[in-house]
Amino acid sequence: MGKIYFPRIIIPTSTALVALVDFAVAMAIMFGMMVWYHFMPSWRLVLLPGFVLLAVLSSLGPALLITALNVKYRDFRYIIPFIVQFGLYATPVGYSSALVPAQWRFWYSLNPVVGVIDGFRWCILGGNSPLYLPGFAASLGVVALFLVLGVAYFRRTERTFADLI
Questions:
Q1: pTM of the complete model
Q2: Are 56 and 20 in contact, with CB atoms under 8 Å apart?
Q3: DSSP-derived secondary structure letter, 3
Q4: Looking at residue 55, what DSSP letter applies?
Q5: Which burial class, exposed, middle or buried, applies to 78 when counting CB atoms under 10 A from its CB (0-12, 13-18, 19+)?
Q6: Residue 2, Cα to own-chain centre: how many angstroms?
Q7: Are the CB atoms for 61 and 147 separated by under 8 Å?
Q8: Would you tell me the crossing angle of helices 48-72 and 112-124 to the nearest 10 degrees?
Q9: Which residues are within 8 A (CB) of 117 and not within 5 positions of it... i.e. 6 or more apart?
């Protein structure tokens, strides 16, 4: 008898897929409300799937990194709520990123979720101002960096997961 290989990366990735299904239900409700209130989105709505993909990728990189760290260092799970709470205030969820002063806007855009949320607002709500392109490019770079780091660290440490559990 031999051991069956199970790709361990499926476990943290499956949570992203579950969140994607939840997001699809929420979007269906939102589109129903748009029809009910006679709100017609612009052509930018066509770009929304790209921002959905960007949202999944921006969460997958740190999720893989945190998952691997959580298995290796058991107490790391107590730090995660503080990181999430800080991220909530450092991300334009309850406010517009246009409120950030112009000299800090690029550095603020290094938060990868800033580009995702601004992109969602730009696609759905429209508005006169386009995306802040230098900040959006920086956000894409940070997403790519976290994704590469997360996958690399997860792959490097996944062989020791069974020994640590």
A1: 0.81
A2: yes
A3: P
A4: H
A5: exposed
A6: 38
A7: yes
A8: 150
A9: 91, 92, 93, 97
Among 87, 86, 63, CA closest to 15? 63
One-letter amino acid of 78: Y
CA 70 to chain centre: 19
Residue listed under structure tokens 């770079």: 141
Question: In the structure encoding, which two tokens stand for residue 104, read together?
Answer: 């800090």
pLDDT tens across 144-159, in order?
999 999 999 998 888 7
User: Could you write out the DSSP letters of every residue in 103-160?
Assistant: GGHHHHTTSHHHHHHHHHHHHHT--SS---HHHHHHHHHHHHHHHHHHHHHHHHHGGG
Q: What is the mean pLDDT of residues 54-75?
A: 88
Q: Which residue do the tokens 């002063």 mark?
A: 101
CA distances, 126 to each of 16, 19, 40, 92, 122 (Å): 27, 25, 10, 16, 5
Residue (of 77, 80, 122, 78) closest to 97 by Cα position: 122
